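Let's practice the habit of predicting before peeking. Look at the sequence and jot down your guess about where helices and strands might fall. Then scroll down.
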Amino acid sequence: SLFRASAVKIRLLYSTKTAADMPFGVELYHLTRHHPSLSIERFVTRESGASSGLKYRRMRTDDMVNQDNFKESEYLISGSLNFVLDLKNTLIGAGVSREHILTEAYF
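Done guessing? Here is the structure:
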């Protein structure tokens, strides 16, 4: 298992338009309960509410770079083409090397 084989901390920032659009939301929540090396921040961009554990807004630069050694971290960005390009440019603008950013865009 990734969690047993490594002391690497994994941080997932997960964004969807609505809470209902969030596949595997429950499963990911349960993973964080059993694996303290995994943290997940969930963002919902097109609805508002007061659900615990959800942030009802778009991701911001400070959400991505508020950790120690963020410039040396590895990033995988997956989503729509515009989302991927915007996020990649945000990370590069904050000082993350292009070599530390992997992307996957879908249409």
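How did you do? The first strand starts at residue 10 and ends at 16.
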